[in-house]
Inverse folding.
């Protein structure tokens, strides 16, 4: 995994990232200093920390880009004693930035959780990690134990292992699991900020968002805004994979050219046919657009795309796009939580139709059926899973229109037998408990 930045002002989040293992508490404090506001107890809803976050303009890095300060105020103003939930349960196979942070820099993430808890009046922080996340789990457990042996850290902190699954990391699914149910999204309302873990108001942010918060409180909102754009300030972590020399997690300035990220990762390994932004709930764009693309939602929006949780996948000309899309579409259909018609029937039907096109056995109206079923599935699910799958598939049908037409007429191509460039999860290991 390559972890670096391409700006003189970077790295920020990844500063001091060890090549192996995790940064210990003493090293962390030596690099960043003690946590500010350590002994202050201010009235809930009026904590100066929330004002700092608002002035910085920090947006959530979990995919929705929701203003972090607004979410914090909603939890602070809710009735009941809040809980802070750090969500590092990445079910997206093309993203591993959150687990990389927890694995290498757990104290930066815990700082953010602790500061957020003090801001909203919480007495408990729960760090949730996917059960297949490897070293991230013991790294987090060890970091919490380190803190328990120091003074001034009375806040309750624990680590929870979340079952692997594409929808398991969705915030309502995590809350449902912690409340004793399956790791599946639930119908809302109530929203987690109203009634979440144990029916208490729950602030949920991913580990990158809270790591940014920890630095903003230390260095100030003006420092944070020295990078990025006025509406999307700061830096962001990006998981880069596909036809690239050094895939991994990179830190880049919001709004930086996509080409600069590719250069920092050693360049492409073959000509690029297309780029997938936002992962398997994201959008395909033609590779010819890469010189015109910048790494922020405001720049990608005119192209109908976003960074989502900070995901960039490069697909080469050597790969068969139809086979790739067909394989992922079937996996996404199987990853449904099976709670509503658009997932149970719609995604299965769409995946089956794409498989027919890929195999050259589709009927004349199959293409129209895919488009119609996709429109019926959009905005109708119990969670956002169908919407993401529809975005992935419909953008693929647009970008790879010639390839789909060729397969529908002639069947599989020579490249169909190549190893896939789009990752899917390995078999899940057994869950662990703290």
């Amino acid at each position: 995994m390559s972890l670096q930045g391409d700006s003189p002002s970077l790295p920020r989040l990844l500063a001091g990232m060890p090549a192996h293992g995790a940064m210990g508490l003493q090293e962390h404090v030596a690099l960043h200093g003690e946590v500010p506001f350590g002994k202050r107890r201010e009235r809930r809803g009026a904590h100066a920390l929330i004002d700092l976050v608002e002035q910085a303009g920090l947006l959530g890095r979990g995919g929705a880009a929701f203003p972090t300060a607004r979410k914090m105020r909603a939890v602070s103003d809710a009735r009941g004693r809040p809980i802070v939930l750090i969500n590092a349960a990445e079910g997206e196979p093309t993203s591993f930035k959150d687990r990389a942070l927890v694995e290498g820099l757990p104290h930066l993430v815990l700082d953010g959780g602790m500061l957020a808890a003090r801001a909203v009046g919480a007495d408990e922080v729960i760090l949730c990690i996917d059960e297949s996340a490897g070293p991230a789990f013991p790294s987090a457990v060890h970091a919490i134990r380190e803190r328990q042996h120091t003074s001034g850290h009375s806040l309750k902190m624990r680590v929870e292992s979340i079952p692997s699954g594409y929808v398991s990391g969705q915030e309502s699914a995590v809350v449902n699991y912690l409340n004793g149910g399956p790791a599946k999204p639930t119908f809302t309302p109530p929203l987690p900020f109203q009634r979440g873990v144990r029916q208490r108001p729950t602030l949920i942010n991913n580990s990158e968002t809270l790591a940014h918060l920890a630095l903003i409180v230390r260095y100030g909102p003006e420092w944070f805004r020295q990078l990025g754009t006025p509406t999307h300030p700061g830096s962001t972590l990006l998981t880069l994979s596909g036809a690239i020399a050094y895939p991994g997690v990179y830190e880049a300035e919001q709004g930086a050219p996509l080409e600069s990220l590719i250069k920092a990762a050693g360049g492409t390994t073959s000509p690029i046919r297309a780029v997938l932004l936002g992962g398997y709930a994201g959008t395909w764009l033609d590779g010819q657009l890469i010189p015109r693309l910048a790494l922020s939602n405001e720049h990608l929006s005119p192209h109908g795309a976003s960074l989502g949780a900070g995901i960039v996948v490069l697909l080469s000309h050597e790969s068969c796009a139809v086979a790739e899309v067909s394989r992922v579409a079937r996996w996404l259909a199987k990853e449904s939580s099976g709670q509503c018609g658009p997932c149970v029937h719609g995604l299965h039907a769409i995946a089956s139709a794409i498989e027919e096109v890929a195999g050259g056995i589709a009927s004349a109206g199959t293409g129209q059926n895919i488009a119609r079923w996709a429109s019926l599935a959009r905005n109708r699910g119990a969670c956002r899973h169908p919407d993401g799958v529809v975005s992935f598939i419909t953008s693929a049908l647009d970008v790879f229109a010639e390839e789909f037409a060729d397969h529908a007429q002639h069947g599989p191509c020579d490249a169909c037998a190549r190893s896939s460039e789009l990752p899917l999860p390995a078999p899940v290991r057994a869950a662990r408990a703290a």
